[in-house]
Design goal:
heterodimer; A: alpha+beta; Aminopeptidase; 7 strands; B: alpha+beta
Chain lengths: 191, 188
């Protein structure tokens, strides 16, 4: 699914990690919704992100619109050459600071630094523009690729939350990670 | 089964069984829902009795498509023909299931059973439910057989629970528990 040029905001989120060719993180617009709905409803990212029953286009659209209105949720779309390849968001925290969520739909696009780029960009947004001192996230303990990515971006492991999240028919453990603004000097931060 | 040429791709969903796929309901489905609910031969077994107006149906579809408490799906053949509706009403760890296979040409072909199985499997995978339950008229033998094949057990009879054909009628209540689903899943 492609989005027209007109829908792409003028400025990208500021970057801290190397930008993979053609990849941008932009504010989410209505034009991205069908591609995102399709990816979630197909279950492309279900193994590593949240499991949802397929949702309607109108429901997703309304959800994103609600987030925009209340300014508590900042939704972004990860594009490569105008193609939607993933999503990322800054959400209200579970514990403190701001919570980051990310999913890259397209399997061949994983492991190419796209996640690292998007995570760094959102951290930079949180620290430098939103003036929030802490970014936190949860990930499945067996999602080694994601954990490597977060560690490269300066996140450290804080806790193993036991039986914390319902996923694929059972309550699973969740690895909780965070990066504080004062960690910014380590790898993944500004160089 | 007639395979109809589809120029457009089918709406994406991971709820795919061996005979049917369940896709999210959208407001654009209203005209078809209206025709189904007012004309389909499955109407005899539905718990909604009066014909529905367009406004009524539009409001229902709009809320079904949006409300997280009522995940609702159109049942499609794998080739993309819409043949019915199914969904859940969530009450915490308990969910009520409903299904209507409106296109009677597809009755008796295993489509209903596959739709029930696919919905139950998806629901237990995605939602922390302890049980999924449903009610059915005792004379709807075809449906009861289908639910049993899909792993539901009869729990009992609710007396005078539904008003149909001018009188209150008993209904059978059936359910499947998370542990039963997990046991069946491990066997597969």
């Amino acid at each position: 699914m492609r989005s027209g040029d007109a829908t792409v905001p003028k400025t990208d989120v500021a970057i801290a990690a190397p930008r993979p060719a053609g990849v941008r993180v932009v504010a989410r617009t209505e034009a991205h919704v069908s591609a995102i709905a399709a990816a979630f409803n197909r279950g492309d990212a279900a193994a590593s992100t949240l499991y949802h029953l397929p949702r309607s286009h109108v429901a997703l659209s309304a959800g994103y619109e609600g987030g925009r209105r209340h300014r508590t949720i900042r939704n972004f779309t990860i594009l490569r050459d105008h193609e939607v390849i993933g999503v990322c968001s800054l959400l209200p925290p579970t514990f403190a600071g701001v919570q980051l969520a990310i999913a890259i739909f397209d399997a061949p696009s994983r492991g190419r630094g796209i996640g690292r780029f998007a995570v760094s960009a959102l951290c930079e947004l949180a620290f430098d523009e939103l003036r929030i001192g802490r970014v936190e996230l949860g990930t499945y303990p067996d999602n080694h690729a994601a954990i490597r990515c977060y560690e490269a971006c300066g996140f450290s492991r804080e806790a193993l939350l036991r039986r914390y999240i319902y996923h694929d028919g059972a309550w699973r453990d969740l690895l909780w990670m965070a990066r504080a603004k004062s960690d910014s000097q380590i790898s993944g931060g500004r160089r | 089964m007639k395979r109809r040429p589809t120029s457009r791709a089918l709406p994406p969903t991971w709820l795919v069984g061996s005979k049917v796929r369940l896709r999210a309901i959208e407001p654009e489905d209203v005209p078809q829902l209206l025709r189904w609910f007012n004309e389909s031969p499955a109407r005899e077994w539905l718990m909604t009795r009066l014909p529905l107006s367009r406004a009524n149906e539009r409001a229902w579809a709009a809320s079904a498509a949006i409300s997280p408490a009522t995940p609702t799906f159109i049942i499609q053949t794998l080739a993309g023909k819409d043949i019915g509706v199914t969904g859940l009403t969530l009450h915490g760890a308990r969910a009520e299931m409903g299904i209507a296979l409106h296109e009677s040409r597809y009755w008796g072909g295993g489509y209903g059973t596959d739709a029930v199985r696919t919905l139950v499997d998806g629901a237990f995978r995605a939602l922390p439910l302890l049980r999924i339950e449903l009610i059915v008229y005792p004379d709807n033998k075809r449906a009861i057989g289908c639910y049993e094949k899909a792993g539901f057990s009869r729990e009992g009879v609710l007396r005078a629970r539904e008003y149909r054909r001018g009188k209150y009628e008993d209904v059978v209540i059936m359910s499947i528990l998370h542990e039963e689903w997990r046991r069946d899943r491990a066997k597969d």
